[in-house]
Amino acid sequence: MKRLLLVIIALCTLLTTILAGCGSSPGSAGEVNVYNWGEYIDTDVLKLFERETGIKVNYFEYQNNEEMYSLLRMGGTNVDLIIPSDYMIARLIDEDMLEELTFSNIPNYSLIDARYKNLEYDPQAKFSVAYMTGTVGLIYNTTLISDDITSWSALFDSRYSGQILMFDNPRDAFGIMHKYLGYSQNTTSEAEIREAFDLLVQQKPLLQAYVMDQIFFKLESGEAAIGPYYAGDFLLMHEQNPALRFIRPVEGSNFFVDAMCIPKGANNKTNAELFINFMSRTDIALMNMEEIMYASANFEAAADFTGELEPWEYEIMFASDAVLASCDVFTNLPANILTLYDQLWVELKK
Questions:
Q1: Which 3 state secondary structure label does DSSP give 293?
Q2: Which of 30, 39, 196, 224 stands the most exposed, by the fewest C-beta atoms within 10 Å?
Q3: In degrees to the nearest 10, what's the CA dihedral of 213, 218, 219, 223?
Q4: Are residues 174 and 200 in contact, defined by beta-carbon separation less than 8 angstroms?
Q5: How far apart are CA 317 and CA 201, in angstroms?
Q6: DSSP letter (8 states) at residue 20
Q7: Nearest 5°: phi and psi at 165?
Q8: pLDDT per residue over 173-200, tens digit each?
Q9: CB 138 within 8 A of CB 149
Q10: pLDDT in tens, 42-77
Q11: What is the pTM of this model?
């Protein structure tokens, strides 16, 4: 019922816009090429945007920040808008790969919570508009694992051999190992990074697979028993399989902010800014929250949506200050450390 109401609200907003004659505003023609994570938007909002603006949305997905970065670095298909995570935004800024935003095209920026502005990855708030936030934790199937899991050490438990999943990207995978070892997830110590690598090598024979979006099917179906992933995705998986449980390990975890950005040289920059403005609107943010179960950076949407959650859902979707105190936010790393990560990841996966 709530989802129907959200669609009705969005359609009413669209009708108001049309009646006001705003459909012919500058930039409201042509197309916009949007690249986003998988399972990270309500696709109905794309249709609403097209109807409201006349701008065609060409929508594509990537599995992780590193895949998106490689696409941009190789000069692939024209990209107008991306939604990378905090540390990747910092890297893109450092490498002059993002356009400065024209905020006069994004008046709904005023609806973004101040907590998600001027953060370390974009201190002058020139290149990004926050989209969603969340944490990383462990998801496990209580019908397959009877223990009360509390630690990242479960990912090394030989009793679960062949049923363990692991992130298929280096930053998250190494980050977990660093937390387990008691190190910062932003360490630049080569010794600590190699120690984490040794743990990943030890873990590898126990794994069923390295995964990203594939984790949905594997955990929902019971094909695998345990794996690390993002809190919002757990809430979607739990709807399909109530036997799944989510915990943030005692050693701590990762808190992230994903934000909307425009790559350097985008062909449709104004249209991309109109898309950012649309996505930042409260009714659209609510639709996206309902679909993907992450915490919106729009403070109106976040405040309204919390009333629809069970207490345990609220705690997972909106991490408490106590939880966040044990979490690291990934930061951009020096070039030599990024090269080391890449080399070790290739060695691990071969």
A1: coil
A2: 30
A3: -170
A4: yes
A5: 32
A6: T
A7: -110, 155
A8: 999 999 999 999 999 999 999 999 999 9
A9: yes
A10: 999 999 999 999 999 999 999 999 999 999 998 766
A11: 0.89
Dist. CA 69–CA 54, nearest whole Å: 29
The predicted pLDDT at position 10 comes to: 41
For Cα atoms 140, 143, 144, give the angle at the middle one, nearest 5 degrees.
65
Tell me the DSSP string of 116-157. GSS-TTSTT--S-EEEEEEEEEEEEETTT--S---SGGGGG-
Cβ atoms of 83 and 254 closer than 8 Å: no
**CATH class assigned to 2-133+256-308:** alpha beta
Residues 6+ apart with CB under 8 A from 287: 3, 6, 7, 10, 42, 44, 45
- Residue span(s) of the chain under CATH 3.40.190.10 come to 2-133+256-308, 134-255+321-349
Contacts with 125 (C-beta within 8 Å, 6 or more apart), sequence order? 117, 118
Question: What DSSP string describes 195-216?
Answer: HHHHHHHHHGGGEEEEESTTHH
**Residue pLDDT, tens place only, 279-316:** 999 999 999 999 999 999 999 999 999 888 899 999 99
pLDDT at residue 308, rounded to an integer: 82
> Is it the case that residue 25 has pLDDT exceeding 60?
no
In the chain, alpha helices (H): 2-19, 44-53, 65-73, 86-94, 170-181, 190-203, 215-221, 231-240, 269-279, 282-292, 299-305, 311-317, 321-325, 335-349
For domain 134-255+321-349, the question of CATH label 3.40.190.10 is answered with yes
Q: Tell me if 54 sits within 8 A of 29, measured CB to CB.
A: yes
Residues 6+ apart with CB under 8 A from 302: 113, 289, 295, 296, 318
* Rounded Cα distance, 174 and 191, in Å: 13
Cβ-contact 32, 268 below 8 angstroms:
yes
Q: Which residue has the tokens 């069970």?
A: 310
Tokens 């873990």 belong to 203
For 147, phi and psi rounded to 5 degrees?
-70, 155
